[in-house]
Amino acid sequence: MSDIAREYGNETFGKPRPWRALERDGEMITHRCLVLHGLGGGPYELDPLTQALETSGAALRAPVLPGHETISFRMPASRFEDWERAALDNFDLMAGAGDRMAVIGFSTGGVLALQVAAQRPVSRLVLLAPFFAIRGLGWLPFRLAPVVGQIARVAEHIPRRPPPIRDPTMRRIVSQMVGFRTFNLAAVASALALIDRTWDLLPQIQPPTLVLQGRLDTVVEPAAARRMFDRLGSREKEFCILPRSDHLLALDRDRDEVLSRVLGFLAEPR
Fold this sequence. Notes:
37% of the residues lie in helices and 15% in strands. It is built from nine helices and ten strands. Strands 4-3-5-6-9-10 form a six-stranded parallel β-sheet, with helices on both faces. A two-stranded antiparallel sheet has the order 1-2. A hairpin with a 2-residue loop joins strand 1 (23-24) and strand 2 (27-28). The longest helix has 16 residues, at 80-95.
């Protein structure tokens, strides 16, 4: 068992969560969640949260997105169209069982969650550090996707930094989980194109939404997450800044607050 598995007492840490029907006192659990990881990551990014959801009695799917299935030193190219199709397919698999469906997304997974909400009957949305601009570049007056796409033609990869976590113990543990040591620039360009595609849809997205953002985020621009939140069409929405956390919110210093806020939000009456 890995160190990170010991940390949570669970050998399944970071692995895909296939849907399964859960029962309590002979009755089907009605709370269902689709959990979407970020670009270049995997289910490990949200594992404390998925474990807490399972403990609370939720049925869930936490799939590995296309292009992330086989871990290697170099991240392969992949496209947002494939990530989006996988997210919608997983939603449909769970929604077929009936009852309300929540979608939880981290980073690029947050943008995918918004796309699912624009195309499917989502009951609640949770967005953790949603990726709407690269940190420090949110002020640029032009779209980054075409620029990065051009760079990707001559430089396929860029090195990946250590995990963006302020908790030193968790950063050491998660370093053992990270597979890709590069980011594929074609995939980054596709993630940026997904942002452009999603921005115009935001006023149409209506489900109650919780947005959690780390104040110390070194990956995405917190101000861009706030602009996204302000543009979002939902009348019932909450934006929460976590003061001690970097990008990987579910694994960082404010992780207990992340779990508490998400579980409380999902437990609220319809």
